[in-house]
Request: fold
Amino acid sequence: MTIHHHPKNEAPNKQLIDAVRAFNRFYTRQIGLLDEGLLKSAFSLTEARVLYELAHRDGLTATDLGRDLGLDAGYVSRLLKKFERHDLISRSTLVSDARQSSIALTPAGRNAFAPLNKDSHDQVAALLDRLPVSEQDRLVKSMRTIQALLDESAEPKIPYLLRPLQIGDIGWITRRQGMLYAQDYGWDETYEALVAEILAAFVKSFDPKWERSWIAERDGEVVGSVFVVRKSPEVAKLRLLYVEPSARGLGIGGRLVDECIAFARAKGYKTLTLWTNDILGSARRIYQAAGFKLIDEERHHSFGKDLVGQTWDLEL
Amino acid sequence: MTIHHHPKNEAPNKQLIDAVRAFNRFYTRQIGLLDEGLLKSAFSLTEARVLYELAHRDGLTATDLGRDLGLDAGYVSRLLKKFERHDLISRSTLVSDARQSSIALTPAGRNAFAPLNKDSHDQVAALLDRLPVSEQDRLVKSMRTIQALLDESAEPKIPYLLRPLQIGDIGWITRRQGMLYAQDYGWDETYEALVAEILAAFVKSFDPKWERSWIAERDGEVVGSVFVVRKSPEVAKLRLLYVEPSARGLGIGGRLVDECIAFARAKGYKTLTLWTNDILGSARRIYQAAGFKLIDEERHHSFGKDLVGQTWDLEL
DNA sequence: ACCATTTACTTGACTTAGTCAACTATATCG
DNA sequence: CGATATAGTTGACTAAGTCAAGTAAATGGT
Reply:
């Protein structure tokens, strides 16, 4: 993955390290088992890997293959020479660089690869077939997660995108806010219930002309959200701003607030107001930066804690 | 994993197969990269794997090593002979079987293994260190999932367990119910809002003496839930029964309803009532099996659909 | 335009890692 | 007790991969 935000890490937890090492040992063996089944073919495992790359990507050079598969250049050279001798590949010198040549499978090469590919496919199919469908999904989802997290070369992804509310979001936001504030500030389950209540009311009385929601999504996961509701014809209220800890530092919070302000202005509201608690420092900094002014403070006891509530207004 | 429930599988989906193959190629490379760093040592990769096993498990025999690491018996024999020559291991013939011997690292063997182990540890630590902590957690969680799913020898796991509500649950249940009914029956976002509202009210007015919740959890994931609320001193109401599609067929639905009935009886309620919709067939079958009787039906328009609501009662 | 350096690939010489089959000693089954 | 299986060993072998030196083309700096 591309690292957009790299907080100062302490040395990673030993338990996590051991878990990763255990997985590596486990998966080394797992791959070994799958590969065993392919050994009967005329090709070695590495040859098969090379053929696979050639079958699936066009215009590769010898260096590309060596780099992507982690092979020695001399070894690649010999493999390719052998393939060429057997007429499995053809090479054409690049016009842009006469040292390199673009390698392609010949029809004969494709024919040779087909059974190999089928065997590998069938082997994986057999593996999956041992699991019920729901677990197949969990398996593949986990694999995709690992790949996305470890793949340095993943295409520079869009840091995040904003979209309106969808089904499933209000539950997710409820859950995440409930869990985060419980973890960070020790708030009890009534906070999660309050979020649920607010969001339920938002959906039920939603007036698209005067109200709006923004969900920040990254890699298909919700990482932040904010809501604007109509309090009166003159006053809009910003509610439930949150950004996932894992997505902080990307400016998502500020962006969400800016969207709210722009929307409130466009709709002709005179004031954008919001209510928060003084302990929520990072949210406060966002509001201040956006020009909100502290209007009022009052003590209250909520969510199992003594808190100081704050009202902030922005004149539009 | 041990397969408790193995529905008739069709041939697994090609997309899933390709995803698994992509992961295998990716992880082959990943392991290759990690292993490269260890090549400077005096030991080959396979030797290091053997040493690792010996360092972490006592009383292994040569056959055990060959089987667990997927190595040829002759090769193992030679590796062990070499280790013995360098005084890294000691072998003692088993009393139970004079052909086998139990292999143990000598102190010198442990010394030789230590730097190897440290290098591998550091390498993984460096890998993890590139990720923020939250992503480290996601990574390891995904690895554990894969391992649990693919490891045939994993201890037979508890199919599911029941526990009371925790923070984060009501959001999760809201989300999942909203998504499932949208997917299966085309209900709109007001259903999710209704669930949120009901659950918010449940938490806010929760009376532990007369009310209760049960969350079914499997592998740390919520896979079902049900709630009992007090409608009157005589009548308890069962609400929001649901079971994840992936966990159906384990009897979780029936179990949840049985818990509600037992609770309502124990508390001295006279009637357990519930409201549902006629299209929810699998829920209906559970209620019928538990002895509920259909009391009333009425048409209504909700969640963007024309529906037939049903009231079911069980006299306790 | 020219020279030093780098890159892409090739080749020869080599080592390491792993395989296979034959063999011994012991254990197990009926 | 004899047939068969298992644990481990060994010799003979091959496949797989490494390393260093070399050629030809490209690149960067002056």
Notes: Chain A has two domains: 14-150, 161-315. DSSP finds ten helices and nine strands in chain A.
